[in-house]
Amino acid sequence: MTTVKLATTFGDIEVELDDAKAPVSAKNFLSYVDSGHYDGTIFHRVIDGFMIQGGGFAIDAKRGMVQKPTQDAITNEWRNGLKNTRGTLAMARLGGDPDSATAQFFINVVDNSFLDRAQPDGAAYAVFGKVTKGMDVVDKIRVVQTTSRMGMGDVPKDPVVILQATRVG
Question: Averaged over 157-169, what is the pLDDT?
Answer without folding.
Answer: 96
